[in-house]
Specification:
Strand order of the largest sheet: 1-12-11-10-13-9
Number of domains: 3
Structural class: alpha/beta
Strand content: 15-25%
Mean pLDDT: 92
Length: about 475
């Protein structure tokens, strides 16, 4: 369905970009704007695998039983010692879990009742040089909060980004409301923007939501020192990669940085309070959640402790992130570092005979074979994890470009990756695309191809080159 081209009044004189391509997936179980008040998460983990480009076996500097403060060093990258990873809370190190080939899966800290913070000597932002600022960000453990495009890597300290991009809304299924999350952190958000503006010779871009009737948070509307642009359209209109493509595409060897709003707040709080404040507000949402709401916690929270009071059915799928791009988590595992959402939906481990022939109940689909697609476009659905089919031959079809608002041919790019053709991959725009940008292509794919996994392999090949 085409989006209205009417410009909301609150946009004012700011630039607005209308996106027609895409697909918003409406799922029952969106979080209400209220907090869980009976959840106290005790265990938190820092997971090296959340930070791309970090060696799988970093140097761990703590032992089980050690006491740490919030902001104390847990481990660092052996090849890049300036990449330091610090504890999100104060407490006791209770586990150093290993994965395949002795890699470090996570370092777990059990939180103290009263948090104790390591105090940092924060430089004066008005006089500090960029070199000294970078040195402080690496020493204080803030540097890994920044991600570099292409490839979503932790950036090199020698790199100066062309621009920095921040999206202030999420358009994915069951997405948390960033306007609600930022409430009370307006000053820290602005201070974080001030810090980031000193790290680039280009611009700091802020992508704002024009899909709602009410204006975005004043923290975003009145942000200073940034270039603000509104986006209106279906998912993936909130993806930072879409903003980059429409505002200042990556060309050649250019590099940009991206951050989430709560990472910006963490950086800002360092310069306001001289502490590493890894507090996070996350949404716990989905059909299998009893009264979906928000939870105030810290980065890397224990999944089972976060959801144990609100899960309706033990036989459900718990996902760190959204249902399109998130990672399935088992009880005892931890929320990924950059996720603001835990999605909980029913398992779909049942066989569906003649699924293409027998009429079924309506479900979210890009095909108009379901009447609800065009009669009730805003209907909210009950969904589960069933794929309604299995992987088959990769059919060349034109539907993928209808959900990807970028000047890229997704099928041609995927086949170039499968063929290992580096030159074609570059020519078809692999440096512009991240996994979240092709997630809808994977969702609507009649061949059930894993677009995100294929793209990840392509990125790995490009990095090795």
């Amino acid at each position: 369905m085409f989006q209205s081209k009417k410009k909301p009044d609150y946009v004012g004189s700011n630039k607005i970009i209308f996106l027609n391509k895409g697909m918003s997936i409406n799922i029952k179980g969106e979080a209400d704007k209220s907090m869980f008040d009976n959840v106290d998460v005790q265990k938190y983990a820092v997971q090296p695998g959340n930070f791309r480009g970090v060696v799988p076996i970093p140097k761990v500097v703590v032992n089980i039983g050690d006491k740490v403060k919030a902001g104390d060093l847990l481990f660092y990258d052996k090849k890049k010692p300036y990449l330091k990873f610090i504890s999100p809370v104060s407490g006791t190190v209770t586990a150093i879990n290993r994965g395949l080939r002795r890699s470090i899966k996570e370092v777990v800290v059990e939180k103290d009742k009263d948090l104790e913070y390591r105090k940092f000597n924060t430089p004066d932002l008005s006089t500090v040089s960029r070199e000294d600022l970078v040195g402080f960000l690496t020493e204080s453990g803030l540097w890994p909060l920044i991600r570099q495009r292409p490839y979503d890597l932790v950036p090199e300290i020698e790199e100066i980004p062309r621009d920095i991009f921040i999206t202030t809304f999420d358009s994915s299924p069951l997405a948390p409301d960033y306007d609600y999350i930022i409430t009370g952190n307006e000053d820290a958000f602005q201070k974080g923007l001030d810090v980031l503006s000193k790290l680039t010779k280009g611009k700091v871009y802020l992508g704002l939501n024009a899909n709602k009737e009410q204006a975005p948070s004043q923290a975003f509307i009145k942000a200073e020192g940034v270039e603000k642009t509104f986006f209106k359209g279906p998912h993936p209109s909130g993806n930072v990669g879409i903003h980059v493509h429409h505002l200042a595409p990556i060309k050649g060897n250019q590099k940009i940085w991206i951050l989430g709003i709560q990472e910006v707040v963490t950086i800002g709080n360092m310069f306001l309070k001289n502490i590493y404040d890894a507090s996070r507000i996350i949404a716990i949402a989905g059909e299998d959640v009893d009264k979906p709401r928000y939870l105030k916690t810290y980065m890397g929270a224990d999944i089972s402790e976060s959801v144990r009071v609100c899960v309706k059915d033990a036989k459900c799928r718990v996902i760190s992130g959204n249902v399109l791009t998130g990672e399935t988590k088992e009880y005892g595992e931890f929320l990924n570092a950059f996720d603001y959402l835990i999605s909980i939906i029913p398992e779909g481990n049942y066989f569906e005979p003649f699924g293409w022939l027998i009429p079924k109940k309506s479900r979210p689909s890009f095909s108009r074979s379901f009447l609800s697609k065009w009669i009730f476009p805003k209907k909210k659905y009950n969904i589960d994890t069933n794929m309604h089919g299995q992987e088959r031959a990769f059919v060349a079809t034109g539907i993928y470009k209808e959900v990807l608002p970028m000047d890229i041919y997704p099928v041609h790019l995927m086949k170039a990756i499968l063929a290992g053709d580096i030159e074609k991959m570059e020519g078809l725009g692999i440096n512009e695309v991240s996994e979240e940008d092709v997630a809808l292509c994977e969702f609507i794919c009649p061949s059930k191809q894993e677009f995100q996994a294929i793209l990840r392999d392509g990125h790995r090949m490009m990095i090795e080159q």
